[in-house]
Fold these 2 entries.
Entry 1:
Amino acid sequence: MAKRTAKLILTEPDTVIDLPVYGGSLGHDVIDVRALVSKGVFTYDPGFMSTAACESAITFIDGAQGVLMHRGYPIEQLAAQSNYVELCYLLLFGELPTPEAYRQFEARIRNHTMVHGQIANFFQGFRRDAHPMAILCGVVGGLAAFYHDHLDTADSEDRLISAIRLVAKMPTIAAMSYKYALGQPFRQPRNDLSYAENFLHMMFSTPCEPYEVNPVFAKALDRILMLHADHEQNASTSTVRLAGSTGANPFACISAGIAALWGPAHGGANEAVLDMLEQIGDDSEANIQRFIDKAKDRNDPFRLMGFGHRVYSSFDPRARVMKETCDQVLAELGNPDDPTLRIAKRVEQIALEDDYFIQRKLYPNVDFYSGIILRAMGIPTNMFTVIFAVARTIGWISHWNEMIDGDLKIGRPRQLYVGPPRRNYPD
Ligand code: CMC
């Protein structure tokens, strides 16, 4: 229902077009421009800076106030009081589970953690030094070849089964890609462990000796998963929606999301942050200032990785929680004065006092600290984006599901054509 009307005035010939304006439960109003096509014009918005591509009830972000809420619950409260599996339920179904619903949901996830035995054969086709994100894109897309018994996207129960399979199997595949690079045997999931504990077990245990999961690490990993679980219509989620709008199967859609996440401007940023901190090397004032100056130089493509965000023009609320978790993990390791963390804190401090960053409202984002935590837990840098992908799978699948349940239309943007007009092929 339109709450007001926008008037678009076109000249030559003079035309007035009335466009309905809708209001959501929170956030900006939107102008419904769908009628424009029948008036012979399109809207033009590269990068979708001003375009709402869908209606969604999953996640709300107020970038100016630094607010992130899932189904109405602030991320800080969820991070402090909930856990990743419960958040998966909330994102997928819209409400927090009752204790019984939680028990059943968690049991379903636990019972789908194993992958088909033949999936292990896929790995042999990859070079040992393959980037694990390359493996993840391929293997997750390949899951459709194994689980085609429930791929009817019009059937909500089939969609739920695929969602559970994806959430359950992502840590298994991620850990397999790590073990493959190391040349160590794959570890089977253990159903007596929690989601995060099981992930750490599959990554770090070997058949040769007992492995005990460090509870501080399990808690930190669970938090990292929660903080990355969903972030409304970001590049990878929009990719999943666009792929899904064609009726493609969920495994193919999530694989498309993984590919989009891989870029350094999106999920690859935490890997890039650590590379940058290592390049900086020491926390001397002059050295850090040199990198800050490089980031400010418009003729230099270098950017301060882990800073800035398309939607947050104030602090990224996830970064606060991440910073606190980072301190906890380093304290557990008896290394609260980690040199990389020292450099990170100094970079943050100098940047936050610098006019360039202040004027552009560039603050640390979620990835600024997550890399330091993951590295402290023994997770290699090239696995960082993989962990992000594991976490984001529930966000992707919840949006995919919401889209199919709603007014599904194939996503098909228009363009402003600037190529040559019609011309004839030379005789
Ligand atoms: N370092 C230096 N300058 C920056 C940075 C940065 N990290 N980010 C933005 N700017 C400048 C940019 O050069 C531009 O300056 P000017 O107005 O003089 O041309 C201004 O700030 C606005 O930047 P923009 O490129 O228009 O902003 P955007 O919304 O298109 O980009 C971003 C957002 C995240 C891609 C960008 O801030 C960036 O590249 N950050 C570093 C990479 C990073 O940390 N990415 C992780 C994002 S959070 C994880 C996720 O949710 O996926």
Entry 2:
Amino acid sequence: MERTLCIIKPDAVRKKVQGHIIQKILDAGFQILGMKMRHLTEAQAKAFYSIHKEKPFYKDLVEFMTSGPVVTIALQKENAIADYRKLIGATDPAKADEGTVRKLYANNVQENAVHGSDSIENGKIEVGFFFSEAELAG
Ligand code: ADP
Ligand code: MG
């Protein structure tokens, strides 16, 4: 079983589409192990996205991710990393396949509705960034 971290980003929370996104995730066969709404601090957003700290979009990304509450969700499934990336679609919603979460709900390449882990290793690390083992059920 693989784990992946979903973050429903501030743009999607502002649009009140959290319920639709969570239902799509459940319909795709993912198990929700933990779920919590949070308003990320600047330090949390900087640390979470530290892999991108040299990128030109880093500062704006941190500002966006702290602009309102998010929903953090720890997910588990066989092949979770690849299956979840397929479900959410490309980073840029203009390039995302029809029916994907980002095609349906993203505004643009920055405000793209959801986060997903990019590897098995990072899935474990990112779930651990927001949840202790004791907080995860199932
Ligand atoms: P993904 O979230 O699909 O794994 P990345 O890890 O490359 O994408 O980027 C992390 C996040 O940074 C994206 O989800 C998006 O919010 C933002 N981002 C990525 N590329 C750009 C860009 N070219 N311009 C603005 N924001 C971007
Ligand atoms: Mg990424």
